[in-house]
Amino acid sequence: MNNINIMPKFIKNLGELPEIQCFPEQLNQVFLNLIVNSSQAISENRQDNDGVIVIRTWRDTYHVCCEIAENGPGIPKAIRSRIFEPFFTTKAHGKGTGLGLSISYDIIVNRHYRELFVECPPSGGSVFTIWIPMNLTNDKDQNQPP
Can you tell me the distance from the alpha carbon of 96 to that of 87, in angstroms, rounded to the nearest whole number? Predict the structure, then answer.
């Protein structure tokens, strides 16, 4: 891989969100992990300066939602089911611990009773979507997105 540092363009589409019961420091860690991973995916795999990270937030009746999308190479389907496993990484030795997405998954699923989704559109890139219930309960079924 090339050591070109491409600074991605950030596009924010932030909807009006209510205050919610959550662990803000932990959610900040999730957002940081996803943005850093997105930036690294773009930097390590693009030869131009057209890297873009889109951050979008919205709400529905029961959830606040955040989507972080980038136009890097995407995640190969063969490994997509493993990306939230502790210590799994696609980065070169010494470039990552394989803990960022695992920690993010734990924060969203086990502490906020929700799931962290990833999609890779055919056009490329990766899209991570987080749904946080506005009223946290220990009943995961009650926290499902529509």
Answer: 9
Strand order in the sheet with 52-59: 9-14, 52-59, 63-70, 126-133, 116-119
Q: Whole-model pTM?
A: 0.85
Domain boundaries 25-72+81-137, corresponding CATH code: 3.30.565.10
Buried b (16+ CB within 10 A) or exposed e, 51-90: bbbbbbbeeeeebbbbbbbbbbebbeeeeeeebbeeeebe
> CA-to-CA distance for 27 and 5, rounded, in angstroms?
27
Phi, psi angle pair for 15, to nearest 5°: -80, 165
- Residue range 48-82, pLDDT digits in tens: 668 999 999 999 988 999 999 999 889 999 999 99
Segments making up each domain of the chain, as ranges: 25-72+81-137
